[in-house]
Structures are given as C-alpha cells and as structure tokens.
Design a protein that fits this description.
The chain is α/β, with parallel strands linked by helices. The strands form 3 sheets. Strands 6-11-10-9-8-7 form a 6-stranded parallel beta sheet. The chain has a 4-stranded antiparallel beta sheet with strand order 3-5-1-12, with helices on one face. The chain has a two-stranded antiparallel sheet with strand order 2-4. It has 11 helices and 12 strands.
C-alpha cells in the first residue's frame, strides 16, 4: 500500500479553500451566527466519524479554519489515511464560537468528500491485496478539486494516474481514429514529439492493436474494456516488456479477477466520480 502523502502545500490549498469559503459566506457573511452568538462566546467541539471509513481532507479543513480565524485551536487526533469507526474523534477545536460555527460546514464538506474518495479507494485496494496489481485513479475528478481528490486516493492506498494533460502522452481511441485508425502512425508521431523524459502510453481495445503497439515499445499500454481471458492473453504476449494497465467498467465485483490476470495497474474512474460522501459531524463537548 502506498505511504500516506504529506498535506498539500498552502499555495495549492489556498485558492480552492478560499473559493469554498466565499461560496458559503456570500455577500454578508454568516447571518445566523452573527445574529445569535455573542462575540466573546467560546466553544469546544469535536469532529467525529458517524460512519466507518478512511479519513482524508484534514489539510483542507485545517486551512479553512485558519482562513476564518487562525486563533482557533485545532488538534488533529487521527491523521489522514487512518481507518475510522463510528464515534471516533478525528479532531478537536476550541476558541471563538463564531469562528468555529462559520467554518464548520466548509470543513466538514472537505472531510466528508475526500474521506469518501479515500474510503472507496481502500476498499478497491483491499480487494486486490493478494495480487501485485495497483489501483490508480483517473482524470474524472471534480473540477477544481483534482489535487485534493488525487491526494485522497493516495490516502486510501491507491496511486495517481496523470494529474493533467501535460503529465504524459496518453494516446486514446479517438487519437488513433484521428490518425486514420493507425496505431503505427499515432505512435510514430508521439515518439517524434516526445522528449527523452516524456512517458508514452497508448490505449488499445483488441489484441491486434496490442500486438501492433508492442512493436513500437511504448512505456505502457492501456487495455481498454477487455474481458479477463483477453487480458490474460495480453499479459502472456507482453512477456514483461511494457507496463500494462487495465481500464474500463471496473467494479468492486470484477476488480479481483482483473488483478489476477497479471496486469500491473487497474484504473478506476469511480474512485473520484462516484464515491458516496462519508458522514462526519461536529459536536459540542
């Protein structure tokens, strides 16, 4: 399992968290808190799990609290990547009641969403723990939150695929189609364009395309929507020459069988586009 990544740097977190706070505070701030809570009121609260899972997003939540009021004390009890059960205290806060209540929803939104991604990832990772395959995420992320969600995947034990279009060359089916349907033409153009440090992966959906791709020695080949028998055949044909990635319609019910074919990586879009929110709450103590 991948090590838990460090918190994202403030320069990445800051614009994302500021946008979330501005969205919630609108034009006039927290009307309810300002109307009902005396300015000098102090509060102690905990953030606690209400469902089992894997915690993530504490870096974003902490940054939100700091932007609202850096004087509020925050103690992280369970670090990102930790397994949680209902009732587990994740963090403790104490300080201005107004500040805590104003930051509450934004903090919980980040933790709930990113813990969901980490939790689903951990479930997939555990399904294939008896194999050497690894789970990777995709670019099917929430717009503006890619860095957060890809870090959450790593908190769950998965790893990241490309962060963006500028990471590596990934020739997909539509690129091949636009090259007159030729794997050879697409690969030749990619190799002529790429520098010596630029990775090239190509997506294929038949063994014929796979055999053609192997001739051009890409760094990796993505085996798209192949059944397990075809995946096993591709692994045999490959003879360890290039990295193989299986993709397309992967579910918790099918991932183990896919991993057992011998592929190196399995990409799962659902990690970031379909993870159900993990319920965490803030309670006064």
């Amino acid at each position: 399992m991948s090590p838990v990544p460090p918190p994202l740097p403030s320069i990445i977190l800051d614009p994302i968290v500021r946008l979330a706070l501005a969205e919630d505070l609108g034009r006039a701030g927290d009307l309810t808190t300002d109307a009902t809570i005396a300015p000098d009121t102090q509060l102690s609260v905990v953030i606690a799990a209400r469902k089992p899972g894997v915690i993530a997003g504490l870096d974003a939540a902490a940054h939100a609290l700091t932007l609202v009021d850096p004087s509020v004390s925050l103690e992280i009890v369970l670090q990102d990547g930790s397994s949680i059960t209902p009732g587990d205290v994740v963090a403790k806060l104490s300080g201005s009641a107004r500040s805590i209540l104003t930051a509450e929803r934004t903090m919980l939104n980040f933790i709930g969403r990113l813990s969901a991604v980490a939790t689903l990832t951990r479930t997939y990772v555990e399904k294939i723990s008896h194999t050497r395959a690894r789970i990777v995420c995709t670019r099917k992320t929430t717009p503006g939150h890619r860095a957060l969600e890809k870090r959450a995947v790593r908190c769950g034990g998965g790893t990241a695929h490309r962060y963006g279009l500028d990471d590596a060359i990934l020739i997909k089916d539509n690129h091949i189609a636009a090259c007159d349907g030729s794997v050879e033409v697409a690969m030749q153009r990619a190799k002529a364009y790429a520098g010596h440090l630029r990775m090239i992966e190509i997506e294929v959906d038949t063994l014929e395309q796979f055999q053609e791709a192997l001739k051009h020695a890409p760094h990796a080949i993505l085996l798209d929507n192949m059944d397990t028998a075809t995946l096993r055949r591709a692994v045999d044909m490959n003879e360890g020459r290039v990295t193989l990635e299986a993709s397309g319609g992967v579910t918790l019910e099918t991932v183990a069988a896919i991993a057992e074919t011998g592929v190196d990586f399995i990409s799962v879009g659902a990690l970031t586009h379909s993870a159900p929110n993990l319920d965490v709450g803030m309670d006064v103590v």
